[in-house]
Amino acid sequence: MSHDSTTAPNFIRNQIRDEIDEGKVDKIVTRFPPEPNGFLHIGHAKSICLNFGLAEQFGGDCHLRFDDTNPAKEEQQYIDAIKADVTWLGFEWAGDVRYASDYFDQLYAWAQHLVREGKAYVDDLTPDEIREYRGTLTEPGKPSPYRERSVEENLELLERMRVGEFAEGDKVLRAKIDMASPNINLRDPILYRIRHAQHHQTGDKWHIYPSYDFTHGQSDAIEGVTHSVCTLEFEDHRPLYEWFLENLPVPCVPRQIEFARLNMNYTLTSKRKLKLLVDNGIVDGWDDPRMPTLSGMRRRGYTPASIRKFCEMIGVTRADGGLVDIAMLYHAIRSDLEDNAPRAMCVLKPLKVVLTNVPEGFEEVYDVKGHPARDDMAPRRIPLTREVWIDRDDFMEEPPKKFFRLAPGKEVRLRNSYVIRCDDVIKNDAGEIEALHCSVDFDTLGKNPEGRKVKGVIHWVSVTHGVPVELRLYDNLFQVELPDKDKDADFLEHLNPESLITLEGVAEPGLKDTAPETRFQFERVGYFCADRYARRDNKLVFNRTVGLKDTWAKMQKKS
RNA sequence: UGGGGUAUAGCCAAGCGGUAAGGCACUGGUUUUUGGUAUCAGCAUGCGCAGGUUCGAAUCCUGCUACCCCAGCCA
After folding, report:
1. Residue A35 bears catalytic tag
2. Which pTM value belongs to this model?
3. What pLDDT score does A488 carry?
4. Where are the alpha helices (DSSP H) in A413-493?
5. CA pair distance A41, A300, nearest whole angstrom
6. Does the CB of A318 sit below 7 A from strand B?
């Protein structure tokens, strides 16, 4: 599969290009290695686009490999969701889906190899003791009293760990490297721990599970990965990654390259915290349209292409601590949908307008383009009747200067139809506006009125033909740029109470049988997507992906 | 106070010794039956700071400063 020709330079692309030019590598192999303990989010999209994009650009392969070494946290539902998300984003992994657990036998044999070489040992220290012996950032650690066990004893103990003779926490297998290393990862890192857990792939076969460090590089090597791209926090692990490759008879030597993970304002990308939102029912599941998960964004109406474009826009660097403006994401989806979403009229907050100089039973139908700049999109048929809905926001009884919409005595154009003038405001006993009485200027269809300029154009829907719809207006889940900035303060305090506003609107008749996941631009309002699942009281549900740019609202806010 | 990293505009980011790309955001003009779109123009005498090398430095050297990551039997 191949998309998006724009390939801005970045340090990884440059490096690989140079390696290929110099003949150091022929065909590259990358991999996307998620742990199946949650749903993929926008930060993972950056990694997916990078890894699969690299393979595409240089004619190599990218594998999908689940890093499934911790059965306590992993679930099959996450595996299924992750596969679906990667596919939806538009990428195809080379060969079958892979699992680190596919390599557990080989990993165990390599552990035995290290033991035989005197480079690994079984440690009986408790977790607390191990922590104490490890030292601190500024003080060296000290060797475990079990560090010098014989090869035979280590081998036997390791085997007994494997078959489940010991309780969790009783023993671990450790590499024998350097307890005084300034790099804490090299202070005899743990290779295997005891876990009497059912594993989603291997069932009850194992009672010990390899650590990330003992698994990742070797899995890369087994798969022939050439470039193992990961995030910056693994930088300190690279010496360990390389230590295993040097001390084990691996078939090839991958190189680890780190890049900065994505941080975006108003957004959380901690799987732990996202899971908390889900588990506490603060959002409506992992695919709630307010979630930064790929499945949430899909439901919200984001297109795969817009997410890929966003990832291209933000670039790839080693500079951390940066914060991408979510406006860039909004730009990416707007520009895709501006080009590709058919237009429709939909009234969000209906206000009835009676066209008083039009007879009862009047009906006139307009053929309207599906998209102003594209003729390949199906035209729409829009009926005008005596009563129409307009948006309450398009009328003001006492309009400010430069309000180009409806007001008493003022004129406005009904989009695709006539210019009307507001003659009367009908109110109920409570003084609330119930309807507007307007008159049509019949000499304005498809042409400007004589002798005056009518600047305003508003959208509308026939009362008799419009289809009632539920509209879900989404906004940022958090109202502060950095919801988890305060280390200990509760990020839930920063939730945006208006992240979801539900309205009962009316859409033009052609939308009656809209298929799930169909996207529209509701003219003058925003981009909406028919929900994948929901229908409410047999009504269609449209999720607002993002609003149109609104310079009027901006002007209002300023003054 | 140990180790590993990173600093280019409000934000993201190119740049790799020859005189600061691009995008987002913002500001102003034009077009427009979407206050949308499109389009034009503006937006770093300066690249964390201070020195030095050089005809020439964001790029090389030295010294500072700020921020990020690491003390899970998580990944």
Report:
1. yes
2. 0.97
3. 58
4. none
5. 13
6. yes
